[in-house]
Amino acid sequence: MDINKMLKLKKPEPEPITETKEMNKWVSEFIDAREFDGIKKTTITNDVTRLRVFIDFSTQKLNKELDQLQNVDFIKFFNYLDKEKGIKRNTQKRYFDLLKVFYKINRLSNFDEFKEDSEERKRFKRCEVAHYDFIDRETLTKIIDMIAEGRSQTKVRDVIILRMLWDTGCRASEVVNLTYFDVDMDTGKIKVRNTKGKVERTVGCSKDTLNLLKYYSNHQIYKTPKDYIFKNRKGEAKIEVNWISEVFRKAVRKLKESGDIPNNKKLVVHSLRHGRAVDLLDKGFPIDIVKEYLGHSSLETTLFYAHAKEREKKMLDDIMKSL
């Protein structure tokens, strides 16, 4: 008898979805429209998963066609997501945004009442904000050292990716999608093309990172302009974002176990982007420059980092004065 196994909570089995010809027809037409719109494959894949949940609920639980649903039916669906599936408000908003697009694509008007009512009541505005701590250079150095001192065959590549994430402030998906065509190996300037906002921008990396990148590149077999820089161990395909996230997570866990990083620090790969934003603002770079460098679609996103840092400093000063 494995007592440790018995002590662990079992993960609930996902509720099966009944695939029908009608469902596949809706899904196929949705995929065609989104591909024509130029939406990323990963986004389409995630949306299709949610769309199948919605179609299954409507046809199997409510026994209604999608063009027959009324306001009360959409309320039932979102209550189902909340109460039965335990889906948080952030993800519910993704379902809401998906349905807006889906019903617009199919020119169906029966979603309009629920959409207008929800926007008027701001049902999906009160979303939980995922809290990640900003990472600073000192903590990043510890993480990089931990990876560099390990025995992984891909540690050089993994360290370069983390250094580039810090230098450029890029999203992980933007870095893993870089090709040799995107990087000027002489200057260290990098064209970021596969962006979330579909707007190209230019960023840069430090001389040290560039030298490491050159070293890594010299040991690669395939490096034509169209080749991805960061490939998997077999050199067959680009590295997955999940891989670098896992490498980062393992290093953070070990450093927490050794007491080098506080246990209450919540650090993820995206913390590097947060940290770069705060670092640039601390160094006095104008907010509009930081916005462009990081590729924020809205100035409000950049202001969040500025205000968060100001609040942190002010709160600390006020607390220390009261001691």
From TrEMBL:
Signal peptide stretch: none
Source superkingdom: Archaea
GO annotation, biological process: DNA integration; DNA recombination
InterPro entries with a match to the protein in the record: CB, DNA_brk_join_enz, Integrase-like_cat_sf, Integrase_catalytic, Integrase_recombinase_N, Integrase_SAM-like_N, Tyrosine_recombinase_XerCD
Domain Core-binding (CB) intervals: 21-107
Domain (Tyr recombinase) ranges: 130-321
Molecular function, one GO term: DNA binding
Keywords for this protein: DNA integration, DNA recombination, DNA-binding
PANTHER family, alphabetized: INTEGRASE_RECOMBINASE PROTEIN MJ0367-RELATED, PHAGE INTEGRASE-RELATED
Entry protein name: Integrase/recombinase XerD
Species annotation: Methanococcus maripaludis (Methanococcus deltae)
